[in-house]
Amino acid sequence: MEPRYPTMSSKTLLHLDSSILGGHSVSRQVSAAIVARLAAADPSLNVVYRDLAADPLPHATPASMPADHPLSGGKGDAASQQALDDFLAADIVVVGAPMYNFSIPTQLRAWIDRILVPGKTFAYRADGAVTGLAAGKRVIVALARGGNYADPAFAAVAEHAETYLRWVFGFVGIEPEFIVADGIAAGRREAALEGALRSAGELKAA
């Protein structure tokens, strides 16, 4: 995990990457551009970075969950608790999310398992409905996909990255924003990257 740099900023940005491709990754380049855009608009922004591929959380077990999770029995794992605490403390979350085999990387899924905690990020009401407890945060996802998903019929059966992340963040009360680079493995890598970087540079700062 990268070191934290405390500042006098009233806002904290949590930057997550999950691609296994290092410098070749499109999602990493786009997520970095998003963070650069927001940091340029607010130089006092406190940026916390976590590389989920280089420093992965383990697959979920009761013992590996945050101490705040009911499954942990009040004990839990320190790294998992830190992941939850970082999310709760963040005003803005930027997620680099490639699509692997039609869904998100397992490293990102393991992080999501740490932030979906009853009583912390969501709660069930007496009638069985869910209240998201993380409303007010801004989430921006840099999504890179190898194929093209412009056809709604194809996307409906094959796209389980953007749809999943929209549902997950919506479940905790957040409507995420997406900057998408499509066709990375279908002959559109440079055009897709250029378009996504342009969108990141035009991103609304506030």
Portion of residues in helices? Answer: 25-40%
Report the mean per-residue pLDDT as an integer: 94
Strand residues, percent: 15-25%
In N-to-C order, the SSE pattern is EHEHEHEEEHHEH
Family: Belongs to the azoreductase type 1 family.
Keywords: Flavoprotein, FMN, NAD, Oxidoreductase
Binding site for FMN: 19, 25-27, 99-102
Function: Quinone reductase that provides resistance to thiol-specific stress caused by electrophilic quinones.
Descriptive report:
- This protein has 206 residues and is an alpha/beta fold.
- The chain has a single domain (12-201), classed as Rossmann fold.
- It is 33% helix and 18% strand.
- It is built from six helices and seven strands.
- It has helices at residues 26-41, 78-89, 106-115, 152-158, 162-171, 189-201, and strands at 12-17, 46-51, 92-98, 122-124, 130-132, 138-144, 177-181.
- The strands form two sheets. It has a five-stranded parallel β-sheet with strand order 2-1-3-6-7, sandwiched between helices. It has a two-stranded antiparallel ribbon with strand order 4-5.
- Helix 1 runs parallel beside helix 6 (189-201).
- The longest helix is centred in the first third of the chain and has 16 residues, at 26-41.
- The chain is globular, with a radius of gyration of 17 Å.
- The two termini are 27 Å apart.
- The model has no long low-confidence stretch (mean pLDDT 94).
- Its cofactor is FMN.
- Homodimer.
- Quinone reductase that provides resistance to thiol-specific stress caused by electrophilic quinones.
- It is an enzyme of class 1 (oxidoreductase).
- Belongs to the azoreductase type 1 family.
